[in-house]
Amino acid sequence: MKKIKYIRKAAPPHMVGDGFKVRAFIGSDLWKDLSPFLMLDYIEPWHLHPTEFPRGVDVHPHKGFETVSILWEGALAHEDSTGAKGKLFAGDVQWMTAGSGILHKEFHEEEFSRRGGVLHGAQLWVNLPAQYKNTPPSYQDLKKEAIPEMVLPDQKGRIRILAGALKGLQGIARTFTRINIYDIHAQADAVIDFELPPGDNCALLLLKGTILVDDQVTREGDLVVLDPQDDRVKFQTNNTVHVLVLSGEPILEPVVAYGPFVMNTQEEIMEAIDAFQAGKFGKL
Ligand code: MN
């Protein structure tokens, strides 16, 4: 059974653009233990008043990794320099591969903005190995209805497979390295256990409720980093919980990041900045 390595709390909330009040859970100090995950910004349920102009983040670049937007409540709209456009609604996931370089904007969806309501979601940054950092940009719209889901025994909850596989149930996200992401909603007294390839990094993010893992009660707001060596993850729910499981094969390469560019060397960062400034990420 996997042991707890350590537990981290989120940083205080900060704003990303005027549309996302987020709490950062993964920073550079966790890159080694949580590779391939680079960042996780959590948007706590946030009640927004109606507004005529959608809030969000205007045109900005990304290169060398993937951004994964997970939405539990509200609606978002996306547009990028490949010409792709998309809307995300509650339950949807958008998996964007920035790869060789992309420009995009991320806003609240227009109708949702006009109506107001609760926004609740997360954005995860997933690193790409050197050989795929210059892969053409693309994105995958993972619609709620298409995301496979496993019901827990006695109807005690459900596990949505956002990436990877769980007990033979295969998720639909295309990933460049082995990644398992599970979105778990469960009631009290559910036992959740599954196996992961030994050596893969793994963390449990407690978004709601408390669970018992490795004989320790962990609470809402805890990012529980597990020991990668064992293959079995097991925990029990103490009450109604929402848990995000992040797991993946570590990318054993240097990480050099500068804002929205994540490469392997400082030289590649300089090249990325030059390419962006020269307009090589396209137009939006
Ligand atoms: Mn972005």
Core attributes:
seven-stranded antiparallel sheet, 284 residues, globular, mainly beta, binds manganese (II) ion, 3 helices
Give structural notes:
By secondary structure, this protein is mainly β. 8% of the residues lie in helices and 52% in strands. It has three helices and 26 strands. It has helices at 31-34, 110-115, 266-277, and strands at residues 4-9, 14-16, 20-26, 37-48, 56-62, 65-73, 75-80, 85-89, 93-97, 102-108, 117-127, 138-142, 149-151, 157-163, 165-166, 169-170, 179-186, 191-195, 201-208, 211-213, 216-218, 222-226, 232-237, 241-248, 256-258, 261-263. The chain has a seven-stranded antiparallel beta sheet, with no helix packed on it. The chain has a seven-stranded antiparallel beta sheet with strand order 2-3-4-11-6-9-12. Strands 5-10-7-8 form a four-stranded antiparallel beta sheet. The longest helix is centred in the C-terminal third of the chain and has 12 residues, at 266-277. The model has no long low-confidence stretch (mean pLDDT 97). The chain binds manganese (II) ion. The site of manganese (II) ion (MN) has 5 residues, from β5 and β10. Residues 60, 62, 67, 104, 106 line the site of manganese (II) ion.
Task: Give the terminus-to-terminus CA distance.
Answer: 49 Å
| Biggest beta-sheet profile | 7 strands, antiparallel
| Number of helical regions | 3
Bound molecules: manganese (II) ion
How large is the share of residues in beta strands?
A: over 45%
Give the integer mean of the pLDDT values.
97
- What is the tally of beta strands? 26
> Unreliable stretches, pLDDT < 50, 5 or more residues?
none
Helix content: under 10%
Overall geometry: globular
Radius of gyration over alpha carbons?
18 Å
Output the strand order for the largest sheet.
1-22-19-24-17-14-13
What is the H/E string?
EEEHEEEEEEEHEEEEEEEEEEEEEEEEH
SS class: mainly beta
